[in-house]
Amino acid sequence: MMAPVEKPFAFTPDHLARAKVIIAKYPAGKQASAVVPLLDLAQRQNDNWLPREAMDYVADMLEMPRIKVYEVANFYTMFNLNPIGKHFVQICTTTPCWLRGSDGIVKACHDKLGVSTGETTTDGKFMVTEIECLGACVNAPMVQINDDFYEDLTPELMGRVLDDLAAGKKPPIGSQTGRRGSCAQNGPTSLKDRKVG
Predict the structure, then answer these.
(1) pLDDT band with cut points at 50, 70 and 90 for residue 2
(2) 52-72 pLDDT, tens per residue?
(3) How far is 148 from 168, CA to CA, in rounded Å?
(4) What are phi and psi of 55, to 5 degrees?
(5) How far is Cα 92 from Cα 101, in angstroms, rounded to an integer?
(6) CA–CA separation, 40 vs 179, rounded Å?
(7) Helices of type H across 11-64
(8) Whether 66 contacts 101, CB under 8 Å
(9) 130 forms bridges with which residues in the sheet?
(10) How far apart are CA 189 and CA 197, in angstroms?
(11) Helices 52-62 and 35-45, interaxial angle, to 10°?
């Protein structure tokens, strides 16, 4: 069996310019502090995952040992070390979301996409995973898909979000029930005489 062919990695001219701006924010000799934003930039350029070649490229650019970059990439769950779907569906299943029905959101994703948690659809469009708190507990249950939050979900609303993404549409982010910010579900309960911008 032949060894896999390594695919070289380099920032595009645009990403290279952005990387230089990021590195310049740190004092001389402390450029290794830019490792997290540069790994994020590399991941965004490479279909939302980090191959070893991308990590090596970032390490060489920052003049730091490659093992240190691997440690950072392995520590933070924001970095994907294997290919994932175009739409990375991260379902919060921490207690507040669970109490508000995240089990139904997980099931809706499994049923709609035909994959289990941790799997990618055969067309490469979606990967589903369960994660810990995303910090929008008052609008539970919620998911993060790539960089966007979708909140106040029901299984039916989750299905609509997935249908829109599958059709190449951009579903509205935030509350899926029209809730404004983190107001109570039935609207403000205090300061009712105050105008909300």
Answers:
(1) very low
(2) 999 999 999 999 999 999 999
(3) 15
(4) -65, -40
(5) 10
(6) 31
(7) 13-24, 35-45, 52-62
(8) no
(9) 91
(10) 17
(11) 140
- DSSP-assigned letter for residue 137: G
The strand order across the sheet containing 143-145 reads: 126-131, 87-92, 143-145, 148-151, 174-175
Q: Answer whether 44's CB lies under 8 Å from 33's CB.
A: no
- In Å, how far are 1, 34, 139, 144 from 136, measured between CA atoms? 48, 28, 6, 10
User: By C-alpha distance, which of 144, 139, 136 is closest to 178?
Assistant: 139
Which residues 6+ apart lie within 8 Å of 166 measured at CB? 125, 126
Query: What residue type is 173 in one-letter code?
Result: I
In the chain, DSSP finds a helix count (H) and a strand count (E) of 7, 5
What single-letter amino acid sits at 177? T
Q: What is the pLDDT of residues 90-102, one digit of tens each?
A: 999 999 999 999 9
In angstroms, the CA 47 to CA 49 distance is: 6
| Token code pair at residue 17 | 């310019």
